[in-house]
Design brief:
This protein is mainly alpha-helical. The protein has three domains: about 90 residues, no CATH class; about 35 residues, no CATH class; about 120 residues. Helix content is about 40%, strand content about 5%. It has a two-stranded antiparallel ribbon. It has a two-stranded antiparallel sheet with strand order 3-4. A two-stranded antiparallel sheet has the order 5-6.
Length: about 270
């Protein structure tokens, strides 16, 4: 049995003309198509013309041309109907290789080295070290004294000035509470985290509490300071508590609003 080189139908060796397509079998056999010249790319075994698989190792033989499913005739690319039998030909679909991340399945660009979705190294498969913010970081670990020195000193100075102004106006002991709320509430919103803000507020409230009586003495004299201390003295603990609460609330809930108002004008803090 031989296979017709035009339509691929197997025909008895005694036929000179293919009964399916009329091809002259004697003339169509060329040296390029002879079995001696066709070799399997895997094992080197001689192949029959138009063979789809190697008879020895079973390797699939690439066939660049399309074939009609009905008669087996070769069909040129782009042709929708077989020129021999008229059957509609299904053109082979050209598949495009798509690179997929082995870790997360994300579709990758051809020249990608790291996955943009999960950060994995596409060559080694190792995950890239991506720094993440530790939400469970302890209160003590968040404290950075160097970052709160300037805003704390400025808040203290502002609280002292406001206290003097409010005392002279006549607000008496309430002056220091208002001064703490305004100064600490504003400058705590410029500090990086709530832990540093609380420490800053604690210092401002504590120091202003110690300066309460000297400020009264500065404004009205020693006698008034003694009377004031007898009537209203001892606000240190109360001022510290108010300052800490105000600092926390300001940093947690008013931080973005305060920073939007200030902008870059106080970036030196």
């Amino acid at each position: 049995m031989v296979k017709c080189s035009r339509c691929g139908v197997e025909i008895a060796d005694t036929f000179d003309i293919c009964p399916n397509c009329g091809n002259n079998l004697a003339e169509s056999q060329t040296p390029a198509e002879s079995s001696e010249d066709l070799k399997c790319p895997s094992c080197g075994e001689s192949l029959k013309p138009n063979a789809d698989f190697c008879s020895k190792c079973g390797t699939k033989i690439a066939n660049e041309s399309n074939r009609c499913e009905t008669c087996g005739s070769e069909v040129p690319d782009g042709v929708l109907f077989c020129p021999t039998c008229g059957t509609k030909v299904k053109q082979p679909q050209k598949t495009q290789q798509v690179n997929i991340c082995r870790n997360c399945g994300f579709q990758l660009e051809d020249d990608a080295t790291f996955c943009p979705e999960c950060g994995a190294n596409l060559q080694t498969g190792e995950m890239a070290a991506i720094p993440t913010k530790n939400s469970n970081q302890g209160f003590i670990d968040k404290i950075n004294i160097n970052s709160i020195i300037k805003p704390t000193l400025v808040a203290l100075v502002v609280s002292i000035i406001l206290s003097i102004i409010f005392v002279l106006i006549g607000f008496s002991w309430v002056s220091f509470i208002i001064a703490v709320i305004l100064s600490v509430g504003f400058f705590a919103g410029l500090i990086d985290n709530e832990a540093n803000a609380i420490v800053s507020g604690l210092f401002v409230g504590l120091i202003l509490g110690f300066l309460e009586n000297p400020i009264i003495q500065f404004c009205f004299g020693k006698l008034v300071a003694v009377v004031y201390d007898w009537l209203f003295g001892g606000q240190i603990i109360f001022l510290v508590i108010v300052a800490v609460i105000v600092a926390y609330v300001s940093n947690m809930f008013l931080k973005s609003k305060i920073q939007d108002i200030v902008g870059d004008r106080l970036s030196w803090l």
